Predict the 3D structure of the following.
Amino acid sequence: MPMTVRDVLELPALEQAGPRVLAGRDRLDAPVRWVHVAEVPEVADLLRGGELVLTTGIGLPPDDDGLRRWIDALADVGAAGVVIELGRRFGGTLPAGLVERARSRNLPLVALRREVRFVAVTEVVHSVIVEEQTADLLANDEIHRIFTELSVEGAEPRQVLREVTRLSGRPAVLENLARQVLAYDTGPVSAEELLDRWETRSRAVEVPSGTGYEPRSGWLVTSVEARGNRWGRLVLLCDQEPPARTRVLLERAASTIALNQLVTQDSSSVERQARSSLLWSLVTHSAPTRDVALRARGLGVVLEQRRLLGVVVRRRRLTRGTGVEMNLRRRELLDAVESAVRACGLAALTGDVDEAVGGEGVSVLVALGDAEGDEDALRGLSAALTEAGHPAGSDVVVAAGSVVRSLDLARRSLAEAAQVADAVVHTAEPRPFYRLLDVRLRGLLHLLREDVRLQTFVERELGPLLSYDQRHGTNHTALLETYLVEGRNKRRAADAMGLSRSALYQRLQLIERVLGVDLDSSERRLSLHVALTARDVMRHEAGPASG
């Protein structure tokens, strides 16, 4: 903090001179920019504001009117205060007119009862001021370096706020124009204390555009703007008016966030990052659920004492492409889901975090009130995805987990939704949404498709027949599958394969010999049917990658 009038008066060189404050006592904490020794009445012409004037009074005007004008000139120029040594000019007291005018102008006026070497005061004060200015320059240089690096790295708002708190030692909050908390760093306080009734407190603090300090709340506020569009505020909670370097820090942080916002070319990217960060914390257990609930409340989504429903939305057809193309498709899907959530009026966190549970879709955690039905919410979300006409919304599956009543269990619901999506995205018949009951055998096999035991089972059941088809260029495996799918109806199977009934009989007998099975055995038929279905699921999964 800059040196104040009070600090100067507490210096040993002045303390031993017996300083007595005669006026402006409530302004003793005014900062001192410099100390000026002057014995001329026109000293105000030499000042720029913030100076503490030291004088013996020898050269001051001889009359009360002149002394009053002298005080007025110092007050007008913004002097920090006046220190007058008694004895040489004024004897034991200062003129009443001088004191009264200093009081009326609220200008700190101090009388020294004993002599003091003014140079002893100026040496100390000027060295401190120079050190502070050097420290400010070094601090500003560090701020410039740190936030330039954050800009180059495209740092997220939470990283920027972490540096703000580290450098200032104070809590920092980024909010949007709706007074929703997008990111924060608690610093020395708890998250509960920082975010308690945030929206209400924020709306009570109005600071003009730019940067300003609101002493009643102790908030230092600066606007976050991109290309002339103001979309948020950066808030630093201070217990007293902060120094200039703190204002520089906050403004540079706001500029870094705004610059990174422009680079993303996405006006909602900060909100997306905030919501995605919360979901990521849930599915990876990287933050306590209490903190997640607090941050979600700051974003306007209440998760406590709600029924929570995990939802995953994925495309039915995943096509390969460059990294840029795939990112664009993921962004399109996120756009579509966010639009659908808004259209349905759902209270939900939405984020591109499905990869945390092995997928490439969009995860949604819906917070349902007591009167809201989960099936209705899912139907509404599916309809909104289709009706919006968004390019990514017409060919997706909506998969949902079970409803849970605790935020600690939200991860389970999201993981369950991801498993359902895994099972149905390639194989299920079209439906508005899917739950675990819709997975059935084909979905179960899809979930187990990478299990070595399932692959071994398929090879054990079908391996000989597959090898026979490979050696002879036949399609007996397809014939067996058709026969089983048709419920052992030989006429329908023969028609489907374009064979005569006698030819079908012969080939079925060949299949029995190659596999060493009796197709009249219901257990063997079931085993073969499961193996054929599992092979179909695994081939479908591997097809696009090999093609």
User: Anything to note?
Assistant: The radius of gyration is 38 Å. Residues 118-153 form the longest helix (36 residues). The longest strand covers residues 229-237.
